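Supplementary Text 2. Reproducibility record for the structural model of the 410-residue chain.

All settings were left at their defaults, and a single model was retained for analysis rather than an ensemble. We include the record here because the model underlies the residue-level annotations in Supplementary Table 4.
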Amino acid sequence: MPPYYCVLLAMSEPISSINATVDSTTDIAATKSPTRIAIIGAGLTGLITATLLERKFAELGQALEIDIFEKSGGVGRLATRYKKPVNLAESGNSAQDKQWQFEFGAQFFTAKSSEFQQFIQPWLAQNVITPWCAQVAQLKTTDDRTPVISLSEQWGTAQPRYISSPKMTSWGRAIAKELQHTTLHYKTHVAPLADSHVERNTSIKTALSDSEGNALGLFDWVIITAPTVQANELLESSSFTFQQQIAQRKMVACYTLMLGWQDHTNLPASIAEATWEVLEVAGTNQGANIGKLFIEHMKPQRDKVLPSITIHADNDWSEQHVDDIDSVKATLLAAVQQILGWTDSQAPDHIDCHRWRYAATAAHSQTPPTLYSDQEKQWIVSGDWCGQGRIESCYQQAALSVATIGNAQV
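Retained model, structure tokens:
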């Protein structure tokens, strides 16, 4: 948060005289109640929306108060899981300050529009965001089912991929830290909205409460940035204009396998000697459909990361096995072992599996980018799933929300 500065001016006439000549519009601005906006969800869509709202209201010269309600204990939802081996410090290992780190959500993002490129510039300058020019390889299986890895391309600066450093959650935390008119409420489950929550005395106000019935406040606008299933749960008791469209948006799952080694000496040769950082896998291996494999410790600014590998399964395959996580974990592990070819002595020291139930919008339910805005209630439903499901979609949806509210303020 930037420091506040105070400027003292020499007065040539009494303050009362100055006050008497102040423009009437200043009096109105000073006495007008701030616009109160609730954002449900502290993912990137919610954080970027708050950032753009603060900028817009500063431009309009209007007072603003934002409350972000997040059901978890953190921001960003660019999930990172990290773990330190329990016996590393005890062994006197020189790498005892290191840990395994897995980007088990979004691995990277792109910035294709000039507007989003401009938006991320401050964090690029701070090295919170870093370009990732990864070497990509492809895995193909021969007729005798032998896996063959060959280099395919290197991500370049013409269309860079970006990561957040030192972990993917760092950018969301940096955005949250810079907000000046926004209060974040963690571990807060907002209760479903209903038509009875809307008051229309002099203006439209929505009363929010948490799942235990505690009042959260009255708000001029409510913006829901939760995934489709949670958004539908929040609105199913209301007559929200686009309730049916939201209910029809189906999300599909994704399984992520995370493997870690305590040091480089026990790594299989396929990783220890790898000239690639991203492996694209085509077809089925040992009964599992794998999408991509990422070598975490080879990413930029990951000096304190022990050998860590993250594997994302194919969305459709994950959805078919969504309720069988133990079996999926074993199947994925067997498939990756076949690809990387480790022996018993080279087996990973850490194995973990995470299931994202709502990872991506199903292909058959995708629609053109849109914003679900009920002008009568002044409720907005937004999120990357309303667009193309990319991180840049978070920015695009935030910009649409701010334009909708900004137009109503003028």
